[in-house]
Amino acid sequence: MKVxxxxxxxxxxxxxxxxxxxEAVIIDPLRETKPYLxxxxxxxxxxxxxxxxxxxxxxxxxxxxxxxxxxxxxxxGPMAQPEYDVYxxxxxxxxxxxxxxxxxxxxxxxxxxxxxxxxxxESGKDYAIFTGDTLFLGDVGRPDLxxxxxxxxxxDLAGYLFDSLxxxxxxxxxxxxxxxxxGAGSACGKNLSKETFGLLGExxxxxxxxxxxxxxxxxxxxxxxxxxxxxxxxAKNAMMNKAGYENxxxxxxxxxxxxxxxxFEALAEAEEALVLDVRDRNDFSAAHIPNSIFIGIxxxxxxxxxxxITDIRQPLLIVAPEGRAEEVITRLSRVGxxxxxxxxxxxxEAWVAAGKETDAIENVSADTFAARVNxxxxxxxxxxxxxxxxxxxxxxxxxNFPLDYINANMDKLNRNETxxxxxxxxxxxxxxxxxxxxxxxxxxxxxxxxxxxxxxTDLAKSDFxxxxxxxQEVIDQxxxxxx
Length: 483
Description:
The chain is α/β, with parallel strands linked by helices. Keywords: Metal-binding.
């Protein structure tokens, strides 16, 4: 028996490959099928099942294309009812794969169709559980993502989750390995561990949601407390996973079209396309196409695209580092942004050589920023970190302006004012600056290095605010100001 976790850091997502006696299973695959097909070709195994733990909201799965390519059967647990052919397994049903067995455990709570899959080894011993978003390391799946699918409330789902954990998962042995669908960085839970797998016994000891003395009411209260609105693309991705989607190769071939500057500009105007610049942030600051938006490929690229570009069918044109256009298109498709029309051949250098106009955003070091603050030259500071980050420590003169909610809060700013923006590192603040710039804000300065470097400047200690406690009530109130 072979079990392999295939972890994708930018999405904090784990897919899984299981093989036994020449037969294989893939659980929760990403959108592109090539890596899985290459693995199958290398091992010579036949893919028997493609298992989906639930309708994912934070990425578009590759199950449909993979089934077409291999003839494997797509398997969901009870209550899924997608709009394409699948095998709907019953609670408690056992699937034979080579010399091992995978048992279906219906574990509703994160969503109603959520299921956990228990792997038993060749000797019949419980070996591992693939929990999807039912159980993470350090947390459980949020119970508010499926409430629009019917009359069920987040409290109802939390109650189902309590029952699922205690009836289906907690009775399993402590040495069973937990393989979740996500780790730290995912918005599918509140406080996921940076570890990507662990033992069930450890989770029983440290995971707040698995406390043995916790009542159902306490569980519901704790699991539903402090939930912020999910990113807007979550519901759209879940629907694509349920209804189906365009073939990935078609999406890739359309997006890989190289365009010279004239064709690029003409297509942007004709299709009202958004120009998405994914280069290094310093390169973007120095020169970029006017009205383009920066979301760097080397950061949390796909989740920020999904959070900030509200139309999932928005036509996109790409400005990318040399040789990385295919990577950009692939990562966009993972979160359902399939309408990429092409990329700028030759990059910004070709644009400049063609005599086209460029724009820039002032980028200053933390020391330069501190010197200007000390001289009284800075009137408006926008801290684009999350409310919880801001509450933990911030500049007294700063206003929290979270990137997550920029589209809803832009009207609070004055286009005639100059704004200095910072985040934790300079990545999110430059995204915010690019969006504001495209919306007509001309007086923007990004602080490179962000909070991590601002703290080490010669700003007076009295300029910093460092709260010692953050109650849930305080957090909820802070988040509520933006939603």
